[in-house]
Write a structure and sequence with these properties.
The chain is an alpha+beta fold and 225 residues long. The chain has 2 domains: 74 residues, Dna Ligase, domain 1; 112 residues, D-amino Acid Aminotransferase, Chain A, domain 1, CATH 3.30.470. It contains 7 helices and 10 strands. The strands form 2 sheets. Strands 5, 6, 7, 8, 9 and 10 form a 6-stranded antiparallel β-sheet that branches. Helix 3 packs across helix 4 and helix 6 crosses helix 7. The relative contact order is 0.18. The model has no long low-confidence stretch (mean pLDDT 93).
């Protein structure tokens, strides 16, 4: 993959969020629409194309835990809110050394957050992970694993193994999650790990259920030589 080639040539072992999402999109894993911007003109073109509400966030391979560092602005509903958020993010980027850009994307609404990931085990090789997302990933550690490759049946089984599996059901007026689409994402994640040996980890968190449909709104990919 060209993105991975370039990152390794630059001495990086971590992709930016935008790069990670480009790789996921190339594997038909659904991600929120977004563009990378570095100027007011590009920002103006972005919100005219994407529309409101929007989310703006700092984008750099070196920036982790963006929410904790106040490098994410969500549910922006006007041009003024977008411009104000852009100015604050750009100032933070410059103060941090000036390396990076800003992601301007569609704001995905949803009350249920999942995580889908990949880790390369020394003994078993690429393993796919599925569990509760957002802050609950670390707090509850409610995650199921399968060694790649995965069949559709494997994917459906692992989704039923987490303790919080009822989050996938129709509850409190929310529709049932699209289990077939989730299963396909897990299968494709396993294929990605098998076919691209330079990927050590993939972390899609959160994966928001927008109605029934899962959408990756944040992603990280760690590489190995």
């Amino acid at each position: 993959m060209e993105l991975i080639d370039r990152a390794l040539q630059e001495g990086r072992n971590r992709l930016s969020e935008h790069e990670a999402k480009q790789i996921l999109h190339s594997r038909d894993i659904p991600v929120n629409e977004e563009v990378e911007v570095t100027s007011i003109q590009e920002l103006s073109e972005a919100f005219q194309s994407i529309g409101f509400p929007m989310v703006l966030k700092a984008c750099s391979p070196d920036v982790l835990h963006k929410t904790e560092h106040r490098l994410v602005y969500v549910d922006l509903r006007s041009e003024q809110e977008v411009y104000t958020a852009f100015d604050k993010l750009w100032q933070a980027i410059q103060e941090a050394g000036g390396s990076g850009s800003i992601l301007a994307g569609e704001y995905i609404r949803g009350d249920r957050e999942l995580m889908i990931g990949l880790t390369r085990d020394e003994q078993f090789g690429p393993c796919v992970a599925f569990g509760l997302g957002g802050i609950f990933t670390e707090i509850l550690q409610d995650v199921a694993f399968r060694v790649a490759p995965l069949s559709r049946g494997d994917a459906l089984e692992m989704m039923q193994e987490i303790r919080g599996r009822r989050i996938l059901e129709a509850v409190r007026g929310l529709p049932e999650a699209d289990m077939e689409q989730l299963a396909e994402i897990l299968v494709r994640m396993g294929s990605l790990g098998l076919e691209e040996g330079r990927i050590r980890e993939v972390d899609c968190n959160p994966v928001i259920l927008q109605g029934s449909d899962p959408v990756v709104v944040d992603a990280a990919i760690v590489l190995q030589e």
